[in-house]
Each structure stands twice: as C-alpha cells, then as structure tokens.
Amino acid sequence: MGFVKTKTEISKIQDSLNKPRFMNSEMLSIDFLTHRATVEKLLPPGLEPTETSRVTVMVGRWQSNCVGDFDGGAVYIEARYKDIVGD
C-alpha cells in the first residue's frame, strides 16, 4: 500500500471515516484506593486530591473499521478542580 491512492481506495477510506465503528472490545478495569501523598505526586498543578484517593487502571484491546485493531490503557485519578470532582 503506497502513499498515492486510487479513487477507489480514497472512497473506501472516506466511507470508513464517515461511519466509524469500534467493536469486539475486551477490557480489564481495576479500582483501588491509594495514599493521598501518592495522588498529590501524580496530579498536575491545579488539581487536588479527593478524600478517597481513588485510582482506576484500565487496559484493553479493540477492533475498528477506521483505525484498525489496537491495544491501549489508561490511568484515571479522582481529583478536584475548584468544586468539580471527576476522574
């Protein structure tokens, strides 16, 4: 597959990007509590730890018609910004 595409190849790419589908995902997610000091070290400036110091770690793999099969992961840390709490 080269960089120069035929009209047929471009149409196929455009069709996939116009109707993205993510399917057949497998995920593992773990929630846990940690020490407030750990959360303070990990959060960027402007975010503050919450009372619970809850962390969620997630890994998974997905299939899609627009970006192909892929693996990924994320770390979510419960935090506060002013009066808003979220991950």
- SS content category: alpha+beta
Ranges where pLDDT stays below 50 over 5 or more residues in a row are none
Instruction: Calculate the terminal CA-CA distance, rounded to whole Å.
Output: 40 Å
Largest sheet: 3 strands, antiparallel
Tally of DSSP β-strands: 6
Number of helices: 2
Task: Describe the 3D structure.
The protein is α+β, with helices and mostly antiparallel strands. Helices cover 22% and strands 45% of the residues. The protein is built from 2 helices and 6 strands; from the N terminus they run αβαβββββ. It has helices spanning 7-18, 36-42, and strands at 22-33, 48-49, 54-64, 70-77, 79-81, 84-86. A hairpin with a 5-residue loop joins strand 3 (54-64) and strand 4. The N and C termini lie far apart (40 Å). The model has no long low-confidence stretch (mean pLDDT 92).
Relevant terms:
3-stranded antiparallel β-sheet; 6 strands; alpha+beta; 2 helices; elongated; 87 residues
Q: Can you summarize this structure?
A:
With 87 residues, this protein is an alpha+beta fold. It has helices at residues 7-18, 36-42; strands at 22-33, 48-49, 54-64, 70-77, 79-81, 84-86.
Secondary structure elements and pairings:
Layout: H1 7-18, E1 22-33, H2 36-42, E2 48-49, E3 54-64, E4 70-77, E5 79-81, E6 84-86
Antiparallel strand pairs: 1-3, 2-5, 3-4, 5-6
